Structure prediction request, 347 residues.
Amino acid sequence: MNAPRLVDTARLMLATGKGLLAMDESPPTCNERFAALGIPQTEASRRAWRQLIITTPGLADSISGVILFDETLHQRCADGTSFVKVLENAGIVVGIKVDTGAKPLAGHTGEKITEGLDGLRERLQGYSAAGARFAKWRAVISIGEGLPSTACIAANAHALARYAALCQEAGLVPIVEPEVLMTGEHTLQRCADVSLQVLHEVFEQLYVQGVLLEGMVLKPNMLLPGLNCSQQDHIDKVADATVTGLLRALPAALAGVAFLSGGQSAQLASARLNAMNQRYKWRLPWALTFSFARAIQQPALEIWRGEPGNVVQAQRALEHRAACNSAAQQGNYSAAMEAIDKAISDV
Ligand code: 13P
Prediction:
């Protein structure tokens, strides 16, 4: 394992004032989001959308790395430049989603196990040769009556740790993503209990597999009440619960934390990340940043709608969300940033 290279890459990914942009939706997930806005569900549309994202002016001021899907890693801009080259020229580190999706877990109705370990060593070598310096694997855990089961948590934690060890062997920084879903009526406390149980198991398995904590990034959910919970807690309470939980479960040696957005609104995701950094940055052993997909892309996608004439306006919206999250990473975000942007776009 080339530990210094892994540590260097992790440091680049977690640079102050920067975070990650996830644009690694599989074609079916990307098509679903396009369908909701009447955008053609074709390879050409997906390429055009992703070209719009990576050529956004000023993106590298707030974004240290992007996570691509296999299809995107091999795509090119209209002028023939490969996406990887465009990103490298901008100083943005290239990452790749390497799991092959969450499938039903045998014997456990309603639960999933993420697959993709077979042949992963060889695929990682190919991705590294194609320019990737980090990878992502997402496990999903549902909260419900009797869920999650210990079987689901154990199987997913084991797979995450084996994936992480393979990545480090191949010289790629693993993003380890155990996502406790927001779907449901559960309270913040229940999410905190489940998230801690999951994180303890994940770090136990990472230890067993010998994963270098300084050379990996954790991508957790924020600790939140379920989307349909009648009590939606204040931003500060979510920040307190999330930071308290992470401090209890994460080793200090970990390179850093980059949250997923998970279906929160873009503004709420920024406000919550900001509250965590504003209130606690001074006492945290690791950086807290973002690795958002929907909370960065969605407002821009709603402007673009597949129309070439909307590209510039959509890129402005994307750059704005990236800048808001950059400010939140430093505890400098405020609702006024949104108001100023709206005033400018209304002119
Ligand atoms: P969201 O920010 O939309 O949750 O996506 C992050 C991600 O990469 C999910 O795997």
Q: What stands out?
A: The chain has one domain: 3-346. The first strand starts at residue 19 and ends at 23. Residues 3-346 form a domain with the TIM Barrel fold (CATH 3.20.20.70). DSSP finds 13 helices and ten strands in the chain.
